[in-house]
Automatic annotation (TrEMBL):
Keywords: Activator, DNA-binding, Transcription, Transcription regulation. The keyword Transcription regulation applies. GO terms for molecular function: DNA-binding transcription factor activity; sequence-specific DNA binding. It comes from the Bacteria. It comes from Lentzea tibetensis. Pfam families: HTH_18. SMART domains: HTH_ARAC. This is Helix-turn-helix domain-containing protein. InterPro entries: AraC_XylS_family_regulators, Homeodomain-like_sf, HTH-like, HTH_AraC, HTH_AraC-typ_CS, Tscrpt_reg_AraC-type_HTH.
Length: 327
């Protein structure tokens, strides 16, 4: 199936990033507000998989430029060659071979200019949590509970996260996305299972590349955030407060609060809780430790407080979460 490159009319408010190669997937636009840009939701046709691909190359055309915007679903933009520009958050990234941009729900994509992808060659892959199976929680909750979606949990203020695929792995990445695209286009018997398999393997790859969150933040020119996350990573199993983190990075709690919230859309305490919940989920899924022991290992000496915090984040108790995963 050859991709179709329409000449976009800006009055249609169709997202140029989302001119899918698969015509069964469309987007719905929500108008911008005073402090937020326009946002888009994915709307697959009834019964269709909520997964879409888009080939990023020189055939892409628009009239002039397209508005700053965000999406309420995650995506990946992988580039096989050097050339072109991607605008996200506060930055305009010159595209290099092996660049992988992790686009979280709410990440702001900058105004797109007609020449931005003129020299680019790569792929976009976008999906909703529903693609990972019927047992995945609702969209908002899924980004915080499914282990393969953790790289997409960052808040919407920082912009897409730029990762680097090592050169020896690049042919495999290109081949896997091409295979996913072909399955969606050809719809042979078993294509749903094949699409899910390719998507899961890609997300495993993203999770491995994003495992070094401190290194990723330094790569993305966020040295203060790198220090903050380094402290959280080292000390989350112990009692840890905003004041503790502020003292460790040598700035005032007020300045740290405003900076982290502005850069990530979350507070320091929310990030501490998020890191603790990630480890709690891992221990619940991979061990038979008593829930009270798990709570202590992730910084909650009070078992009742651990259960309440876990329930507030996940919408269910730790015991129920463990049972659901075992089933």
């Amino acid at each position: 199936m050859q991709p179709f490159w329409p000449l976009l009319d800006l009055r249609t408010c169709t997202d140029p990033w989302l001119q899918w190669d698969d015509s069964t997937v469309k987007t719905v636009r929500t108008a911008p507000s005073r402090d937020r840009p326009a946002s888009y939701s994915m709307l697959p046709a009834p019964g269709e998989l909520p997964v879409a691909t888009w080939q990023l190359e020189h055939g892409w055309r628009i009239n002039g430029s397209f508005e700053e915007h965000s999406h309420d679903f995650p995506g990946l933009a992988y580039f096989q060659t050097t050339g072109g520009m991607l605008r996200t958050g506060r930055r305009a990234w010159p595209i290099e071979a092996g660049d992988l941009f992790v686009i979280a729900p709410g990440d702001v994509m900058g105004r797109v200019h007609a020449t931005d992808l003129e020299d680019a060659q790569g792929w976009g892959v976008f999906f909703t949590a529903d693609a990972l199976g019927p047992d995945v929680p609702g969209a908002h909750l899924a980004w915080r509970t499914h282990p393969l979606l953790f790289p997409f949990v960052r808040g919407g203020a920082i912009g897409a996260l730029r990762l680097r695929v090592p050169e020896p792995d690049r042919p495999e990445w290109s081949g896997r996305i091409q295979a996913l695209h072909d399955e969606l286009a050809q719809r042979r018997d078993g294509y749903r299972e094949a699409v899910l398999a390719h998507l899961v393997l890609m997300l495993v790859g993203v999770s491995r590349l994003a495992a070094d969150v401190v290194g990723d933040l330094r790569e993305n020119s966020e040295p203060l955030l790198a220090e903050v996350f380094e402290v959280i990573e080292r000390r989350y199993p112990q009692p840890l407060s905003l004041r503790d983190v502020a003292a460790a990075v040598s700035i005032s709690p007020g300045h740290l609060t405003s900076t982290v919230r502005r850069r990530t859309g979350r507070t320091v305490q929310e990030w501490i809780t998020e890191r603790r919940m990630v480890q709690a989920r891992r221990l619940l899924a991979a061990t038979e430790l008593p829930i009270s022991d798990i709570g202590r290992q992730v910084g909650f000496p009070d078992a009742g407080y651990f259960a309440r915090t876990f329930g507030k984040v996940h919408g269910m108790s730790p015991a129920r979460w463990r049972r659901a995963g075992a089933g």
